[in-house]
C-alpha cells in the first residue's frame, strides 16, 4: 500500500510529465503560426519570445524530472505535439486564421496556467520545495503571455477587420 507521500510524489511526477508534453504541444502550435504571420509583426515577435520561454519551461521541467530520478514521456510528448500541429494546420485554412489562433492561444495559455498552479500545490503539499521557484517562473511566463494576448486581441481583431475590408479574407489571413 502506497503512503500519502508516495502518492503525492507519483502525482507530482505525472503532473510534471504531462506539463512537459503540454509545453511540447505549445511549441508545435506556435512554431507554424509564427512562420505564417505577415501582417501582425507584434504578434510574431511575441510568439517568438514565448517560444523561447517555452523552451526554457521544457528545460526546467526536464531538470525537475531528472532531480526526481525520471524523465519525460516521449509518447506523450509526440502525441500532444501532433495534436498541436494539427490545430495549427486546421486554423491555417480558415480565412480568419489570426483571430482563431488568438482565441486558441488565449485558451491554451490558461490551460497551462492551471497546470502550473496545480503543480505548485502538489510541490507544496509533497515537500518538493526545489521545484517551487522553477514552477513559479513558468507560471509567471504563462500569465504574462495570456495577459499579452488579452491586451492585443482588440488590435488583432481591428487589423483583421480592416485588412478584410480592403481585400477580402485572403488579404486578411495572416
Radius of gyration: 18 Å
The shape is elongated
CATH class: Mainly Alpha
Our estimate of the beta-strand percent is under 5%
Largest sheet: none
Distance between the termini: 55 Å
CATH architecture: Up-down Bundle
Uncertain residue ranges: none
What structural category do the secondary elements indicate? mainly alpha
**Whole-number total of structural domains:** 1
Q: In percent, how helical is the residue content?
A: over 70%
Write out the CATH superfamily name.
Ferritin, core subunit, four-helix bundle
CATH topology: Ferritin
SS summary, helix count:
5
* H and E string: HHHHH
Topology, number of strands: 0
Mean model confidence by pLDDT: 87
Pfam families: DUF892 (PF05974)
